[in-house]
């Protein structure tokens, strides 16, 4: 992860969905969120109009205010303690307001929300983590001078430029938002509400109607793994059942390499129908990533070695 004073992210580091998947398991916080939530108080420049620049986040609102919001614009999460306030909070809020909605400052009191600090593996406060597309991009610990903060934020914005769905500043400038996508919205709403069977059905229909949109296939494979993990559909004894369960849990946590590895290892010691079942699941999970993703390429090589 990048830090103030270090080099800007390289091209490979900027591939959020590929290079950062599973770096920190934030998905577990979804389980703590209520299915329906009250809106979180958010600050906008000049009052009630304009883009949101500041949100206060707890474990119940983390999914919506950080994970979901970060699919539109970067969310800079500040893990702080109200027992020991620092000037960093004021400085970040000021810079976010100055940015006019290009990124959002999310404040988390770790004393009241230790689960969030644990999910980010924070070792000290304050700790600041930039989240984009639901995944950590860059972080630093401790207070920083304003110039270093500006450079760090600029690097975050550069790394995420053109990769997120939001149109920063559109509320203030009158620019139109992206076209509505009610079918995808319905699928994502079902997932957010924990209705996994409904979400799977809706994402499957979207995959059939939009076969070239890989993000839909990735979402479908995630939902399928989450549903199996929740229902323990592969309950049973033996290497095959254990490998299938472990792979699903790893995929839900964003740990693609672990999911692939556990299946490949099981394939090495299996034969016949057991090997066919494991291979089929591995091929399905490999579809979660683009074919040129380094982790997918490595897993395919390992599969070939295991089979032959």
In terms of topology, how is this protein built?
Blueprint: H1 16-19, E1 42-43, E2 54-56, H2 62-68, E3 75-80, H3 87-99, E4 104-109, H4 114-119, E5 127-132, E6 135-141, H5 146-160, H6 170-173, H7 182-192, H8 196-209, H9 214-231, H10 239-252, H11 256-268, H12 272-286, H13 294-307
Parallel strand pairs: 2-4, 3-4
Antiparallel strand pairs: 1-2, 3-5, 5-6
Helix pairs in contact: 7-8, 8-9, 9-10, 10-11, 10-12, 11-12, 11-13
Please report which band the strand proportion falls in: under 5%, 5-15%, 15-25%, 25-35%, 35-45% or over 45%: 5-15%
Q: Helices and strands: which structural class?
A: alpha/beta
- Stretches with pLDDT under 50, minimum 5 residues: 1-25, 27-41, 167-178
CATH architecture of the largest domain: 3-Layer(aba) Sandwich
- Percent of residues in helices: 40-55%
The radius of gyration computed from the alpha-carbon positions, rounded to a whole number of angstroms, is 21 Å
Integer count of domains: 2
CATH topology-level fold name of the largest domain: Glutaredoxin
What distance separates the N and C termini?
38 Å
- Report the top-level CATH class of the largest domain: Alpha Beta
Following the backbone from N to C, one meets helices and strands in this order, namely HEEHEHEHEEHHHHHHHHH
| Number of separate helices | 13
GO cellular component, one term: cytoplasm
Keywords: Redox-active center
Pfam families: Thioredoxin (PF00085), TPR_20 (PF14561)
InterPro entries: Thioredoxin-like_sf, Thioredoxin_domain, TPR-like_helical_dom_sf
């Amino acid at each position: 992860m990048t830090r103030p004073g270090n080099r800007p992210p390289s091209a490979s580091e900027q591939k959020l969905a590929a290079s950062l998947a599973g770096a920190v398991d934030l998905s577990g916080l979804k389980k703590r969120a209520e299915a329906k939530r009250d809106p979180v108080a958010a600050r906008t420049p000049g009052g009630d109009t304009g883009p949101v620049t500041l949100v206060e986040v707890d474990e119940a609102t983390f999914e919506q205010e950080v994970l979901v919001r970060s699919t539109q614009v970067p969310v800079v999460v500040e893990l702080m303690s109200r027992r020991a306030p620092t000037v960093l909070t004021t400085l970040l809020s000021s810079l976010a307001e100055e940015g006019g909605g290009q990124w959002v400052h999310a404040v988390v009191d770790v004393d009241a929300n230790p689960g969030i600090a644990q999910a980010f593996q924070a070792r000290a406060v304050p700790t600041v983590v930039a989240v984009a597309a639901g995944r950590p991009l860059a972080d630093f610990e401790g207070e920083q001078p304003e110039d270093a903060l500006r450079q760090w934020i600029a690097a975050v914005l550069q790394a995420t430029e053109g990769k997120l769905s939001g149109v920063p500043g559109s509320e203030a400038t009158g620019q139109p938002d992206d076209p509505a996508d009610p079918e995808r919205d319905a699928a994502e709403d079902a997932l957010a509400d924990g209705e996994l069977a409904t979400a799977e059905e809706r994402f499957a229909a979207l995959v059939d109607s939009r076969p070239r949109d890989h993000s839909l296939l990735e979402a479908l494979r995630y939902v399928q793994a989450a549903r199996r993990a929740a229902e323990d559909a592969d309950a049973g004894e033996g290497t095959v059942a254990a490998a299938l369960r472990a792979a699903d849990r790893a995929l839900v946590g964003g740990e693609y390499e672990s999911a692939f590895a556990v299946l490949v290892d099981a394939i090495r010691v299996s034969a016949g129908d057991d090997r066919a079942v494991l291979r089929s699941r591995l091929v399905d999970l490999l579809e979660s990533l683009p074919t040129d993703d380094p982790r997918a390429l490595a897993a395919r090589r390992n599969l070939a070695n295991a089979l032959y």
